[in-house]
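Narrative summary of target 7.
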Amino acid sequence: MDTPQLHLQTRRPRREWPIAAGLLLLALVPSIAGAFRIGEIASGAPETAANARFMQMPLPVALHIAGALLYSTVGAFQFLPRLRRGHTGWHRFAGRYLLVPAGLVVAGTGLWMTAFYDTPAVDDRAVAVSRYVIGAAMLACILLGVAAVRRHDYFAHGSWMIRAYALAMGAGTQVLTSGPPLLLFGEPTELARLLQMDAGWIINALVAELIIARRRAASRRPATMIA
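Modeled conformation, tokenized:
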């Protein structure tokens, strides 16, 4: 029997791929910037005020960029329901051996660089505090997600991993929150820099909570019989 519900069910998987495409697009600019930074380090580019901290201590930033690239690209496909349900082996393998280690590296190196790199003055105080909070929150979300899956609480596992991914993708959203003001008004003040950076993380966190709320509502909805 041809029903609207059946049409909806068959169309839904096709709409999942734009989600992954959007996440990959969000990660594109930070990935390009990271590749440029790795290229500078690998080629032994001359030190400048902008890159001196990376050239003098390249390992943390190299690990951060590589981890972020892996985390953002593989993670984009972990949240596609049809792919997750149809390829549970891959989902578990990617989560256990790729995403969790990469996420821990991203958060850990982010905290290390905030603590030990000689950052520009505009990033020294308030922005540094935000980076400590976000890095610690990301670490906590990943560890809580691992703990949840070990006790077979899959909804909590997915929720914590969505939160961790949203925080990690803050760099992509920050391109949108800081790029236009930079073009229009030039270099930001310390307060403007804080607002621009925090806006990226807050937007992503709110979107993550919206997605989690929709997943919770869907999990409580009674299954519909399709003829």
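Residues 145 and 161 are 6 Å apart (CA to CA).
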